[in-house]
Amino acid sequence: MLEDYRIVGRRASDIAASVEAGVGSGALAPGTLLPPMRELAGVLGVNPNTVAAAYRTLRERGVIETDGRRGSRVRPRPPSAPRDALRMAVPAGVRDIAAGNPDVTLLPPLDGPLAAAARRYAEAPTLYGQDPVVPDLARLARAGFDADGVPAGAVAVTSGALDGIERVLAAHLRPGDAVAVEDPGWGSVLDLVPALGLRLLPVAVDDDGPLTEAVERALADGARALIVTARAQNPTGAVVGEERAGELRALLGGHPEVLVIEDDHGHSFVGLPLRPLGGVTRNWALIRSTAKAYGPDLRLAVLTGDEVTLDRVRGRQRLGPGWVSRLLQYAVVELWTSDAVDRSAVALSYGMRRDGLVRALRERGVRAYGRSGMNVWVPVADETGAVTRMLAAGWAVAAGIRFRVRSEPAVRLTVSQLAVAEVPGLADALAAAVRPGAPGIRYD
């Protein structure tokens, strides 16, 4: 229960703020059971409807969750404690392979594209009332979607993949709805879902993406939406393969009311083909960001989907930021039409490092996963111990807790900062850190 923390306030907003303050300070720990609404109303001398409104606000903000007669509790990982807060400081002299950044030597220079964008702007300055999507960008994005077999649909532009995912979720779901999300999966999505007041249903993954039976269980448990990473899944490197895509499409065909969101952030640095799931259900969206392939500061993603979803996303966007800067859109058009970097060479470069590390670890008796992208996922028996021992060996790796809900402990290694010659030494250090001989965690 609340122990020494006292909730105060006469208005619903004040009561909600008091609870949030307790969560933010740590006085109300994750899992803390809040008083029943009538009980708290009596203590505060307010109408129970006032407390009910405060609890509703807290649910919508993702601070608490309510489970019928079991009452309301502080969420296990409320938005005031995001997973990125679990990042550790990297001591001087330690190699950082935890951050998840791309190899800057494989990113194209932006001075030329930005200069070209400035020239276009000088010729025709952006004014209110113009189309939020630059026609050239829409044409190029749609051509790319068509080439990959993505169903027909209009194009919207958002400020990155996470912004797109949030807008699509908000376009269809309401607080309390359940969302099926990969576990392990992208930590930002695992934070976003509860922050929107939605319930998170973890779905196990293997090298081919979400397990069909796990998705089926989530749908049976009431999932209103499914978020899938098409390629370069973070943190496992999974890719939705042809057979798995067929299984998922067949399953989703029996649930036409489910919203399907595909994150294809790996489209420009992964050589494996896309197997789209969109179009099987009534509402769907596929999102492609430019961050990993062209630079994290290029905050732009293109999005396509069904007509209702796109109308809602673009309509709500008009009432907020209005549009993503056309200067950035012009720059992406320039990058896509005169890219100075060979995309296949980028995929090959990441693949050599990633595959080399996975192979070296398996040769040393360590299970490792990384079918695509720039990350390698290594299940371990003792996550904290492995991270600590790797630090002592001169390597900073990411603790798996940032990326998982119910899945087993693991560590994530980002290969983008590695030289191929460093792989054997890193594999030796990790093999020692995870204590070969301890029970492994199997995906298959």
Give the SSE order as H and E letters: HHHEEEHHEHEHEEHEHEEHEHHHEHEEEH
Helix-strand makeup class: alpha/beta
What sort of overall outline do the alpha carbons produce when their principal axes are compared? globular
Which runs of at least 5 residues are low in confidence (pLDDT < 50)? 436-444
Biggest sheet, open or closed, and with what strands and sense?
8 strands, mixed
Helix content: 25-40%
Strands, total number: 15
Tally of alpha and pi helices: 15
Could you tell me the radius of gyration in angstroms? 23 Å
C-alpha end-to-end distance:
41 Å
Strand order of the largest sheet: 4-11-10-9-8-5-6-7
Strand content: 5-15%
The residue-averaged pLDDT reads 92
Characterise this structure.
By secondary structure, the protein is α/β, with parallel strands linked by helices. Helices cover 39% and strands 15% of the residues. It has 15 helices and 15 strands. The protein has helices at 12-25, 37-44, 48-60, 111-123, 135-147, 161-172, 187-195, 212-220, 242-253, 291-294, 307-318, 326-337, 343-363, 383-392, 423-433; strands at 64-66, 72-74, 95-96, 155-158, 178-183, 199-206, 209-210, 223-229, 259-263, 284-289, 301-305, 375-379, 395-396, 398-399, 410-414. The strands form four sheets. The chain has an eight-stranded mixed β-sheet, sandwiched between helices. The longest helix is centred in the last third of the chain and has 21 residues, at 343-363. It starts with 11 loop residues before the first helix and ends in an 11-residue tail after the last helix.
